[in-house]
């Protein structure tokens, strides 16, 4: 009789909880483009069956909740399934655009954790596009952005930052010991949050660049990358800002940009060329990517005499789910002696958002703090001493929400600066 | 009928944040967004956080004679949670706590809004040696509705339908009274329904027309260390069924025994309509896949069980290959067919059953799903298949032998484009025709029946039973506020 392999000699190990890896073989998806308008995606919305799979980490151990908007708002409308079907309703004119509808779509950090769970290929790959397209429509119809977002956007247009600060103060963080090379082809794009709020990141990054003897400069013309304007559906305004930025950097002869901000990185690297059609040809590098390269080549040397530290890593949505960068920052962390990296239950594709993106922090403070506190709690449960990320916006959000100093928040740049 | 005063009164019960009569919120409760059944109307959606709050809501509804529909995900393929007469939808999802797991008596006590993802996640983390029977439904669907509506679990052969997993219930009746049934009615234990009168029947199979279940005790089972999943394949369902019936009477540690046709298996892949075989039989493709899951405590026992299963398959000239081996023999783009269902291939339940409603990328799906004598399961398939083929629909069939093989379930799914009114009309026609065709077989009773099917069964039921159902309904829901217009207990 033919031998059957199902009778294992070793106890059969239950593989439950690891199934998502098997789902790489999902069926063919319809050929769709990104960055289109609502009408383009209208035949996908109703593929959604409101099944709720997008609420929890699919086939992952623990099946943890992953949607800040839904977990806070609770009603179906706040989860991706609800948003898909509301998009279907407005696109088929079953429901009218209202302030409430806009409010629902803006109460979402666009973290895209939901899309990673839905196994309908078109929704999995493209739902982020229509979440944006709904915001664009809200703006066109006068229901968006939210008032606070409109206020900061006006300020971005005037003073080039959303923090109600003066452009003239943008470089106030810059210490005199930082050496810049006026004719450098490489620019460090600092971004608004590091310029005005998390200046430690800017200083650490500039110092790292100096210690590596990299020729770089920071442009006085540096302005908001436009991400906070773009993410709130104000595409036209954002595009204008982007065009000016590209022109300034091209005029300055910049060939490569290093940025320590996840949002700026995503915007320069993806939104500028793919949404705004600005083929700037500038190489965009995120700091961890750059650090990893330098560590691998041996140019960046880590000091061995540092005290041990348990840390956990928070994946910023803008480099994680938006750009697919999960491992580089971890690889950098793993190369630092004494650092013990402990993962939170929700990591990589399933990481819980810090709650600051998508305009949420300015417009929906309660939701934003809810998301941040949930993440901080999760980080604490790992017993880590610090939650490390590589996005100034995440860092600022954590710092503002950590109450009793039981855990500290750090940026990867700050950590690396300490050990070189 | 719904005034601002009522909304304010409800707000004072659960807090402003958890009540809404905004059309953008209530829209998502007015239809199940899957089936071809008509839309309903939700006036107010509300999310209580405790049984006491549910009681208060029911009191307000009684006072104002407003319909109430209990709701967790609203997905059931029979549209039975669609509010037919407007009113309040009580969305239970805030009540999603797992209150207790008793490993000795092997049960868990859950709140009314616990989803399969909640339960599975909790057990995996805190009680890894125990498992619940789990549906092949999406993770966001509710455990308790599934038990109440005779849903089927992946321990179906071992434990029966979801209803048989129920140990006890706490519920708010339509009258507003809080009751407990089972051992929990007089003790802190939720070990079972015996030996008092079994009043769980006041809630099981009533489609939410008697009350709102706020807690339930459900059976858990030990997760044994040895498991195998076989997938014998036969040319036709008729050829495969006798094997499954024989296995159902053989013991052999079998926890799940499913009869699947190729159409249904294809639907698991979310393939495009033009990538699927409408009629695999005509193409000479094998149409029967039999899923046999067995588990054991010791290696020796496991080997003996597997050998016996293999021998029985050989008796029927069917290759008893494992799911993994069968999958590997499939073309690459079809290897996910069944793989994400079984642990031995890295899969697990619950699962997003997207194929079921998304097969043709139209997002609509509905079934004629019935309990049926094991004698008639192959006939059921053939009758429903004929209708599907007539309408050029890929027949998607799946049957499950339950509770040691004492009965089984048989269901045929169809898909349609829910954005196309003509397609919806055709889907309804196909469903009605399948329903009519399978009634030729005695003992076919639909579960989670949509409203149009309910009357059929009411007419068929002997008058004394119908009267008893009506009398009970009047006692537990005197103002007929609970899910009116739905279910066998509805008007
Ligand atoms: S988006 Fe996908 S996972 Fe979420 S409800 Fe819709 S079909 Fe389900
Ligand atoms: S993008 Fe994030 S916040 Fe928005 S619906 Fe998806 S998971 Fe929720």
Q: Please give the domain count of chain A.
A: 3
Structure class of chain A: alpha/beta
Number of helices of chain B: 15
The percent of residues in helical segments of chain B reads 25-40%
What characteristic shape of chain B results from the CA principal axes?
globular
The CATH first-level class of the largest domain in chain B comes to Alpha Beta
Alpha carbon gap, first and last residue of chain A: 66 Å
Task: Please tally the helical runs of chain A, counting DSSP H or I stretches of 4 or more residues.
Answer: 17
Oligomer designation: heterodimer
Please give the CATH architecture of the largest domain in chain B: 3-Layer(aba) Sandwich
CATH topology name of the largest domain in chain B, in short, is Vanillyl-alcohol Oxidase, Chain A, domain 3
Structural class of chain B: alpha+beta
Structure overview:
The complex is a heterodimer of chains A (420) and B (491). Helices cover 42% and strands 7% of the residues of chain A. Chain A is built from 17 helices and seven strands. In chain A, strands 5-4-6-7 form a four-stranded parallel beta sheet, with helices on both faces. A three-stranded parallel beta sheet of chain A has the order 1-2-3. Chain A has helices at 38-45, 68-73, 80-91, 99-106, 121-140, 147-159, 192-196, 199-211, 227-230, 235-251, 262-275, 287-297, 327-334, 360-363, 365-381, 392-401, 412-419; strands at 186-189, 256-259, 283-286, 309-313, 339-341, 386-389, 408-411. Chain A has three domains: 1-144, no CATH class; 151-294, Rossmann fold; 302-419, Rossmann fold. Chain A is globular and about 60 Å long. By secondary structure, chain A is of the alpha/beta class. In chain A, α8 (199-211) crosses α17 and α12 crosses α13. Chain B has 491 residues and is of the alpha+beta class. In chain B, a hairpin with a 4-residue loop joins β5 (98-102) and β6 (107-111). The model of chain B has no long low-confidence stretch (mean pLDDT 92). Chain B has three domains: 4-91, Uridine Diphospho-n-acetylenolpyruvylglucosamine Reductase, domain 2 (2-Layer Sandwich); 98-222, Uridine Diphospho-n-acetylenolpyruvylglucosamine Reductase, domain 3, CATH 3.30.465.10; 226-446, 3-Layer(aba) Sandwich (Vanillyl-alcohol Oxidase, Chain A, domain 3). The two termini of chain B are 20 Å apart. Chain B has helices at 4-14, 23-26, 51-64, 116-126, 143-148, 156-159, 237-248, 262-267, 299-315, 323-328, 354-358, 377-390, 421-438, 451-460, 463-476; strands at 19-20, 44-46, 68-71, 88-91, 98-102, 107-111, 130-131, 166-173, 178-182, 211-219, 221-222, 226-230, 233-234, 254-261, 288-296, 363-372, 396-402, 407-417, 445-446. In chain B, the strands form four sheets. In chain B, strands 12, 13, 14, 15, 16, 17, 18 and 19 form an eight-stranded antiparallel beta sheet that branches. Chain B has a five-stranded antiparallel beta sheet with strand order 5-6-10-8-9. In chain B, 31% of the residues lie in helices and 21% in strands. Chain B contains 15 helices and 19 strands. The chains are: A alpha/beta (420), B alpha+beta (491). At the A-B interface, α3 and α4 of A face α2, α4, β12, α9 and α11 of B. One iron/sulfur cluster (SF4) binds at residues 66-70, 79-80, 108-114, 353 of chain A.
